[in-house]
Amino acid sequence: MDLNTTTRARAAGKRERTKQQNRQLILQAARQVFADLGYGATTVRDIVRATPLAAGTFYNYFNSKEEVFQAMQDEIALRIRPRLHEERAKATSIEEFISGTFRTFFEYVASDEANFHAIRRNTDTLRVRMDTPEILAGFQELRTDLEEAIANGLFPSLDADYLMAAIVGVAFEIAERMLRRARADTEDATRFATALFMGGIKALPTISSGDVA
Amino acid sequence: MDLNTTTRARAAGKRERTKQQNRQLILQAARQVFADLGYGATTVRDIVRATPLAAGTFYNYFNSKEEVFQAMQDEIALRIRPRLHEERAKATSIEEFISGTFRTFFEYVASDEANFHAIRRNTDTLRVRMDTPEILAGFQELRTDLEEAIANGLFPSLDADYLMAAIVGVAFEIAERMLRRARADTEDATRFATALFMGGIKALPTISSGDVA
DNA sequence: CAGATAAGTTGACGCTTCGTCACGTTCCTT
DNA sequence: AAGGAACGTGACGAAGCGTCAACTTATCTG
After folding, report:
1. Nearest protein residue to nucleotide C17, judged by CA and C1' positions
2. Are A207 and B159 in contact, with CB atoms under 8 Å apart?
3. What class does CATH assign to A66-203?
4. What residue ranges do the domains of chain B occupy?
5. Which nucleotides of D are covered by protein (CB under 7 A)?
6. Does pLDDT of A190 surpass 90?
7. pLDDT tens readout for residues A117-146
8. Would you identify the CATH topology of the domain B16-63?
9. CA–centroid distance for A65 within its chain
10. Which protein residue's Cα is closest to nucleotide C9 at C1'?
11. What local confidence, expressed as pLDDT, does residue B122 receive?
12. What is the CA radius of gyration of chain A?
């Protein structure tokens, strides 16, 4: 009864939850643990431990810690993409296209407590690996919408690739700053970003005192 | 002579290189291996193996894979910061401030083969953890320069925090796209970014055909 | 409804990677 | 030349990973 007992698996598999419930259980535990320990410091076992499941079960749902994280990101992409697309589809001017895009993004980011608390915990998470198929599809959609708007004469004929890059860069960076301020003012952020794209720096709203974080 | 021989360390420490040389040896090996295997897939031992050093020696120089990576980033920050600061210091108009910032950044990124080949290999690396003290200091410096320019009346009184976020976001995103194009045209990227900040979308250079990647 | 098959769960195991540290070598000082 | 500081070395213990044989529950089939 020392080391070599080799009592081998004599498991006792209950089936008290559906597949979808287990998946959600893992995702939720991951959010919690990422928020507590930080992405880098959490192990797959940490996530499993925050769950009534066994170690091996995790791998029926995800292949790695990274994949759970990507699933969290995909959830976000899946929720925000339709809203963004809809907003842009009904735009009848550049300004509507731009402000609609930023407003939708900022409002989503500020509202999704469950996902973004885990993210605020790690300064860098918004920047880590935004390259799941879902997210790339979201970027592609922005690109397509942009090209369509150009074709319709809404925009002048410009470098859609760079414009998209600029929009994405501004959206993510400002979102990050916004979340770190005392109260996330999505309207303020939207005004700023929209003004920048509409008229450049000289069109930006001026302020009196420094209300920055 | 089976397992328990416990021949224990009877090392043979040569000292054929200086401390600084060893550090550079490791950094260079890291660049190579990151470029070959990708950041996520390389182990510390992979880096060591690309080096004439022993496993333990690595830890005399860095504490982890991440720290090597951050050192690579710090090298970049250290090289580019003086140039950026100088460029901004001699700006006498908003346009010079903005175009100088973007041009310097894009030109550096396009020129630093050694570091950026490793980076191009991983789509996401530009986005990973930009939070070493060096890099944060660089951001802080941009922020200070910006506030000073505002105080001097170069800029209107605006939200320096958001403006900085916008500059950083546009710089990194466009740099990434630029590097992926057939030939990295830093002047084109600079023109685009500057025009955006100076006059918004309607000031952007128009193009005839789609010369995008 | 018995028997067969599929689907899902379990935890111990083997393996990889990590960071350390006792020991050996080289450099530097006096 | 003596001795201490600095540095290099590789084997070791610990930690985490992903797998898989054994087992349980669900579904299907006639």
Report:
1. B43
2. yes
3. mainly alpha
4. 16-63, 67-203
5. 6-12, 15-26
6. yes
7. 665 555 443 344 566 778 788 888 898 999
8. Arc Repressor Mutant, subunit A (1.10.10)
9. 17
10. A13
11. 53
12. 22
